[in-house]
Amino acid sequence: MQASSSDGKRRIRKGMKRSATALLVTRLLPALMMLIAAGSLLAEEEASDQLKLPEFSRTGADTCLRCHGGEDDPQLMEVLHGPHGVVADPRTPFGSGLQCEACHGPGGDHTGRVRPGKERPPMPAFAPDSPLTTQQENQVCLGCHQGTDHRFWEGSAHDQDEVGCADCHQLHIRRDPITVTSTQSEVCMGCHLQQRSQFQSAFSHPVRFGEMACSNCHAPHGSPSEAMLHSATLNQNCFGCHAEYRGPFLWEHSPVAEDCSNCHNPHGSNHPSMLTRRAPLLCQQCHSRAGHPSIGLTPDDIEPDTQSVFLLAGSCANCHSQVHGSNHPSGATLNR
Amino acid sequence: MNDITPTIIRWSRGLVAVSLTLSAATLFAQDDEVQAEESQPTVWFAGQEIKAPDFEKWECSNCTFDYGWSGSALLGAGYTSDQLFEFGNYRGLDDDGVHANAGIDLDFRAEDGRHLEIYGEDLGLENRDLLIHGGRQGRYSAWLKYDEILQLRADDTRTPFLGAGSRSQVLPDDWVRGQITGDMTMLSTSLRPVDIRSKRETVALGFEFQRESPLRYAAEVRKTRRDGNRIRGGSFIFRAVQLAAPVRYDTTELDASVAFVKRSWELQAEYQLSRFENDSRSLRFQNPFIGINGASLGELAEAPDNQFHQVMLSGSWRPSPLLTLAGQVAFGRIEQDQALLDFTVNPNLANPELPRAAFDGEVDTRVINLRASSRISRKLSARVTLEYDERDNNSSQDAWLQVVADTFVTEPRFNEPLSHERLAFGAQVDYRALSWLRLTAAAKRTETERSFEEVRNADTDRYSLKARIRAATKLNLTIEGSREERDNDLDPSLLGPQENPSLRRFHFAEKDRDALRVSADYAITEDLAAGLYYEYADEDYSDTRIGLSRAKSQSLGLDLSRAFGDSATVHAWLSYERLRATIFGADSVVGADWTARQNDEFRSGGAGLRFHRLPGAWRQASFDLNYSDAEGDIRLAKRGVFDPRFPELQTKRFTFEASAERQMRENLDLVLDYLVGRLTEQDFFRDGIGPAAVPNLLSLGEATPGGTVHVISASLRYRFR
């Protein structure tokens, strides 16, 4: 297919610019303006919707440690040996002075006198029966952990599904499993059951071996790109480790240049190279030229003969091995 | 009246004066109160300002802050019973016999906030990881990471080529070429083993710097080397050879950013560089077959060196507690100008001058992802998104002579620098209709435009409705249905010569996709939880007469977990997935029609038991069992074909891991590990396909793996604080 690429590109740009401008003007901007107006007008309603919190405890952590962190739950003291326990850093609970109540909330009710027969009130946050909602608890964490990694949390898929920081992170522990490559996926797969199964496939990224973590590709704290990927696009994400396929090649293969997931399932598949289907059928979804590309190969072709080169071993890739693109001057058919 | 009115007026004036005075006093008092409140110390909690405690009494005298070094070091040995590449793949166990087992987990903390951690796993194996991370918390930090990933594909492969795995592969001097592999009389004696494996090593060095200001600086440099080989096919017109091609890839990446972070907004500017270098420009290989037109040598172009630069601006802004705007804008450029190979290495064929010495490849990328989310009220929230992705290929375009497989010359072809633009607009509304019911409706439209394709424009509309139901106190259900419709402006005349005009390429063909997902989470008791999901998707390419016509997927899974206080946890899971596809074809356009059906089924399950506390000297133990069973069924029905079913593809895998720790002395533990893995596989694509099995394919003879491997290890862990 020969075409004037510059005319084509100009046509594309003009058309897209018109379409993009129209979309922006007619849909996005009005929606955005309505959201901003609504958000501003209703801010007062939010102002009155404040948390009703008790007073703080009398002596802070010394109050808490009368009951917690002893022989029954010594692991709670690990928080003092980690980043949250650094007194010299004024941003931390034990640097800012709020100590345990920086995260768990004012503990005046929980640590105060309890009438006989009455239940001890829970701590406001991160405790059994805590009254704060998941999103309110998340605001506790985001109050300190703002910026950079968390700037896309609001509106992210995890935020929308009301996933709590404490659903994934553990603080009263020497090493948070989700921060370690070899143990992170176990935490994620507690909810992402389907992905746990997919990573058990015959061919997958080495997540189940602990050699890769979900966060090698995904940004669990949110990302504006699809599927919460780290990079701006899916292909950019893949090229981070597979830069040999970035090109651009003299002879390109269009499904590759556009989207790696056209042919691959990154979470795993039972076909080599995590392909969604085996060749030749994978290729025959898009190629049906007269001649060998269009021939439907049958079980008769398993019997080694001259036809079986199109089926067995690498199938189409026995000859067309440059399936991601070729930089050879004579490589138009991706076999050089 | 005259006597009363002045009195009333006097009293009224007095009342007004008193009222005004009282009002003023009240206002001042309120203002004083407000000032008094404002002057009281406050702190932030969960996004609101509250009265601070009396910190003078908060001494934390019972807080035991440990400074100095703490951690553990692990050293021991393991034994692997057998060599099985597929088992050792990614585990670093490429050989049977004894191996070292080592790990380290050290932490240093100083009172002034300085810290250093050293963490390493599998240090005795070829998939070792090491992290050294230190700094002064709240000020700066730096890190050094080292990571290995070992990929083992096959150790039963054989080749007659000398220099297998290098960029020049030649046949032995006494090689006898043949029209078919059966005629290669020296093949069997020339075969020598060549493992197909590669190792990826990554070193990363980074730092992050933050003074007492909103500015944060960060940078990381990563260098990855991938070394080894992989299987590549080289052809000579319907006769092919599998080669162990070299892999010597170096990728260097740099991410540098500066961020300005405030409470309600932040902005980050980032520069990203990725540079790929390939040690091999080409792979030359001798033709083991009798060549046509004197084609005795072939040359494959290796992946060219390339580089990618990108500048990204990203950030978020929260103008009110109810509205968040977030987004990223990125401009990038991919460049590739590797010197080109000749049209052919066959001296018997025309080899004119190249139109240009190097490709001069250049692709500009532009990406915009914007999102506005608003919690309009306690019940209602909304989100709008805009995604724009452009690949603007400005690479050179020329006419290139085509020498097919170094064998014969055919018509020149113009290369096609592919470009695409994608614009998507989405909106989502979330409404808590009742305390137990939350509804989410979403719509998204994606418009894609491409160059050099038979489809210039494709539009996709997706609609979904989700209900989250709190069916009972501890039972949450989620049901989501979605529909996707794609249209395009296909022009079949652009499909190209000799292509079937009924072909519809699936990645932009017209299609309808319906999907349903149901999931449930049930906290049966405080210690027992269950999860269940079911997903169904049906893609119908109704306009397709040649190509992918239908694709369906179904999956379901069940998960149970139980905690026994804080002393033990047990979990179990089962899942099933089925993928079906129907592909239509026709032999050479006007020949026999055929229909292929591919059906993949996958069953997997596992169970695990962890003891966090054990009686006596045993500290902890864990047991994990995983099982997976995959079947692939391919049928191709065509006129005159008696049995359209191919042999079933099968993979069965079972692993069991056990680990236990026993305290030997105060700081010393004995760690025992056991791993057994069993694999069986049937794959007609590879089984029995020895180097000479196929007349016109000299294969590497890769067979499907199978076997059982046991790994035991014993180590000592020294803990200190």
Strand content of chain B: over 45%
Largest sheet of chain A: none
Give the low-pLDDT segments of chain B. 1-5, 18-37
Hey, roughly how much beta strand do the residues of chain A contain? under 5%
Query: How can the largest sheet of chain B be summarized?
Result: 26 strands, antiparallel, barrel
As residue ranges, the low-confidence spans of chain A are 1-18, 42-48
Overall body shape of chain B: globular
Mean of residue pLDDT of chain B? 91
Helix content of chain B: under 10%
What integer value in Å does the Rg of chain A equal?
Answer: 28 Å
- The helix tally of chain A amounts to 14
Query: Helical amount among residues of chain A, as a percent range?
Result: 25-40%
Computed CA radius of gyration of chain B, to the nearest angstrom: 34 Å
Helix count, DSSP H or I runs of 4 or more residues of chain B: 3
- Distance between termini of chain B? 96 Å
* Large-scale geometry of chain A: elongated
- Please state the structural category of chain B: mainly beta
Average the pLDDT over all residues of chain A and give the rounded result: 85
